[in-house]
Design a protein that fits this description.
Aspartate Aminotransferase, domain 2, 5-stranded mixed beta sheet, 17 helices, 15 strands, about 40% helix, globular, lipoprotein, palmitate, phosphoprotein, synapse, cell membrane
Length: about 575
């Protein structure tokens, strides 16, 4: 399905004699070249024209000495032409560390940077698509993605770079609302580039001195914000919230039965964990990975807003004890994935203390509200938890991935996970060995995820993150107020959402007035998937949907993109109605 608004930017500049349609890429590029400075418009054109035609390079300008040169692209008068490099004759072996590879490397990387900069500018342009959707078999056929025995030229490599971004989802686009992780922060992006340039491992101070210190400083700050005295405790950055949650379960088991580390699960009684029926699937997945088993995860009832019911938690803990099982872990959720609900942490903490059970808070989605003085009350009681998962790559818009596990007891992670490999963690190094953090991680190779968060925190300050988070919550309240009484909309649950999750049904005219409730629900179940598919085919916006329990498919709008505005929320409502009016 073709888009009707993608090339609209060039419409006002197109001639009326029919010589050039305003709906052509050429017209759009001309308008873009005028709109953007510094040659960005031409770079956008290069990005959009992906294919074999790109191999035909533009004819370079001849200098007086017979060499070829082209403009450097800077937005001011200068005398800095750069040599036109023919990448079709170059291979990766011509780049550093090749002898005399400096200039070729700089030219190649500058081309890659130009591609990325063009993509970044386009991503924030509302007149462009969020997605250029193709079905998998179509996308496989449009480009040659296969790997070959022989090397390809750097020209082919640059074409692959452009193609990859052309078909990527523009997660920075102000109208991309599909996931909990959206947006693109420029300082965070710069930090990610620098991190990849440093290309080191987080296991020892020896090979990552600055990054290890920054992780230490940042984790301490996060523990202070949770409310643990003087920021004491422990923590680590892991590959996503699911792994952070599994770390918490691992620590809880070790705390109660340390012998399992050496002797395995046969040395422990039947352990059971507890979590809300609305909790993230990673709790059960962690239990499966640790050999505890998914049947040993007991799901606790949630109320109509998606919050865990404390009385049901205590009832199920008592029942488990009566059966001879050993409750060892309770995972409360601060910001559920679908409803955005915050479990009553204070009441849960009371129950965990009473029954001597490890309390974990999965704050992957909602933990960042601790940065807001206006909204942090929703996590009252988190300071009583034994551990917490907090994903800055969600509400804080830090580039993926950036997930932290915070632990109240210092030293527990080390004793639980250490293997003391003598080829990495020598005990006679000349510095404080507590900064060799790798042995408390399950991984050996660990990516540097800290620098982008630390650098963004330096750039924004805590108050900058606070303003960013509160803006997203204001946008969600605006959406809720706009549709709660609007014809054709029905909220999934009553009352203002606690987080930026706004869950609703859109009832098209053909479904809205049906009297047969069974038929109405049957047809309504199909509405959200069809509208979502049309969104993707037009490329105008993206919003998630899902069923929940006995509820048929509904839209789950989440807002974490700092680029989104009130106008984007208005657009979303109008687009849903436009795409669903014939259903």
């Amino acid at each position: 399905m073709a888009s009707h608004g993608f090339w609209f930017l060039g419409a006002e500049n197109a001639s009326g004699d029919g010589s050039q349609s305003p709906n052509t890429p050429r017209a759009w590029c001309q308008a873009a070249a005028q709109k953007f400075s510094g040659g960005i418009g031409s770079k956008l054109c290069a990005l959009l024209n992906v294919g074999e035609a790109e191999k035909a390079a533009q004819a370079p300008v001849k200098a007086e000495d017979g060499s070829t040169a082209e403009s450097c692209g800077c937005n001011k008068p200068c005398n800095c032409p750069k040599a036109a490099v023919c990448f079709s004759d170059l291979y990766s072996t011509d780049l550093l560390p090749a002898l005399d590879g400096d200039a070729k490397t700089m030219n190649f990387l500058q081309e890659v940077v130009d591609i990325m900069l063009a993509y970044i500018v386009e991503s924030f342009d509302r007149s462009t698509k969020v997605i250029d959707f193709h079905y998998p078999n179509e996308l496989l056929q449009r480009n040659n993605w296969e790997l070959s025995d022989e090397p390809e030229t750097l020209d082919d490599i640059l074409i692959s770079c452009r193609a990859t971004l052309k078909y990527a989802i523009k997660t920075a686009h102000p109208r991309y609302f599909n996931q909990l992780s959206t947006g693109l922060d420029m300082v965070g992006l710069a930090a990610d580039w620098l991190t990849s340039t440093a290309n080191t491992n987080m296991f020892t101070y020896e090979v990552a001195p600055v990054f290890v210190l920054l992780e230490y400083v940042t984790l301490k700050k996060m523990r202070e914000i949770i409310g643990w005295q003087d920021g004491r405790g422990d923590g680590i950055f892991s590959p996503g919230g699911a792994i952070s949650n599994m770390y918490a379960m691992l620590l809880a088991r070790y705390k109660m039965f340390p012998e399992v580390k050496e002797k395995g699960m046969s040395s422990a009684p039947r352990l059971v964990a507890f979590t809300s029926e609305h909790s993230h699937f990673s709790i059960k997945k962690g239990a499966a990975a640790l050999g505890i088993g998914t049947e040993s995860v007991i799901c606790i009832k949630a109320d109509e807003r998606g919050k865990m019911i404390p009385s049901d938690l205590e009832r199920r803990i008592i029942e488990a004890k009566q059966k001879g099982y050993v409750p060892f872990f309770v995972s409360a959720t601060a910001g559920t994935t679908v409803y955005g609900a915050f479990d009553p942490l204070m009441a849960i903490a009371d129950i965990c203390k009473k029954h001597d059970v490890w309390m974990h808070v999965d704050g992957a989605w909602g933990g960042s509200l601790l940065m807001s003085r206006k909204h942090r009350w929703k996590l009252n009681g988190v300071e009583r938890a034994n551990s917490m998962t907090w994903n800055p790559h969600k509400m804080m818009a830090v580039p993926l991935q950036c997930s932290a596990l915070l632990v109240r007891e210092e030293g527990l992670m080390q004793s639980c996970n250490q293997m003391q490999a003598c080829y990495l963690f020598q005990q006679d190094k000349q510095y404080d060995l507590s900064y060799d953090t790798g042995d408390k991680a399950l991984q050996c190779g660990r990516h540097v995820d800290i620098f982008k968060l630390w650098l963004m925190w330096r750039a924004k300050g805590t108050i900058g993150f606070e303003a960013q988070i509160e803006k997203c919550l204001e946008l969600s309240e605006y959406l809720y107020n706009k549709i709660k009484d609007r014809e054709g909309y029905e909220m999934v649950f009553d009352g203002k959402p606690q987080h930026t999750n706004v869950c609703f049904w859109y009832l098209p005219p053909g479904v809205r007035y049906l009297e047969d409730k069974v038929e109405k629900m049957k047809r309504l179940h199909k509405v959200a998937p069809v509208i979502k598919a049309r969104m993707m085919e037009y490329g105008t916006t993206m919003v998630s949907y899902q069923p929940q329990g006995d509820k048929v498919n509904f839209f789950r709008m989440v807002i974490s993109n700092p680029a989104a505005t009130f106008e984007d929320i208005d657009f979303l409502i109008e687009e849903i109605e436009r795409l669903g009016q014939d259903l």
